[in-house]
């Protein structure tokens, strides 16, 4: 037996918006089928990512994924990362830069697991195409509004970002910005994954 929840959300900018069409299918065995289509419209700034953030319980500190690793990767910084099964802790995903910034993203991921000390938690698996993810003890606002790395305070939740598209890093600190092929195109993008409980 399954229950379907459709929903639509629009995020507005000055001269454009991103419309997101959601479809959740919840099954009686605990599985959740999550489908989101991100539709950019009008004039938009450079998009850092297109995806969704899921707030997970603080007990889910054990991280395992099948995709690029072991360190973080982005569309223009992933050739040094290899496809495989990787294991780590959420607390070790953040990269300590002097000024806090986005980190811990992993590209070309087919599956990610977050579990507690007893092995219970969630598995998120792709259904058709791979995705990018990060799992951090900080929100995006924590990273953007904190001036110094030493001032960051880890939160009690785990913030799991699942992304259909991520902006490349570029080299704007001492060179060009992100090459066009590593930017997020203003075309529709789809994220389709399944959440499966691990008992």
Key phrases:
199 residues; mainly beta; 8-stranded antiparallel sheet; 4-stranded antiparallel sheet; 1 helix; 3% helix
Would you mind describing this structure in some detail?
By secondary structure, this protein is mainly β. Helices cover 3% and strands 50% of the residues. It has one helix and twelve strands, in the order E-E-E-E-E-E-E-E-E-E-H-E-E. The strands form two sheets. It has an eight-stranded antiparallel sheet with strand order 1-2-3-12-9-8-5-6, with no helix packed on it. It has a four-stranded antiparallel sheet with strand order 4-11-10-7, with no helix packed on it. The longest helix has 6 residues, at 140-145. It is globular and about 55 Å long. The model has no long low-confidence stretch (mean pLDDT 94).
Apparent shape: globular
Number of strands: 12
Range of helix content: under 10%
Low-confidence sequence ranges: none
Order of helices and strands: EEEEEEEEEEHEE
Q: Which range does the strand content fall in?
A: over 45%
Distance between the termini: 20 Å
Count of discrete alpha- or pi-helical segments spanning 4 or more residues = 1
Major sheet attributes: 8 strands, antiparallel
Q: What value does the Rg take, in angstroms?
A: 17 Å
Strand order of the largest sheet: 1-2-3-12-9-8-5-6
- Summing up helix and strand content along with how strands pair, one would put the structural category as mainly beta
Estimate the mean pLDDT confidence: 94
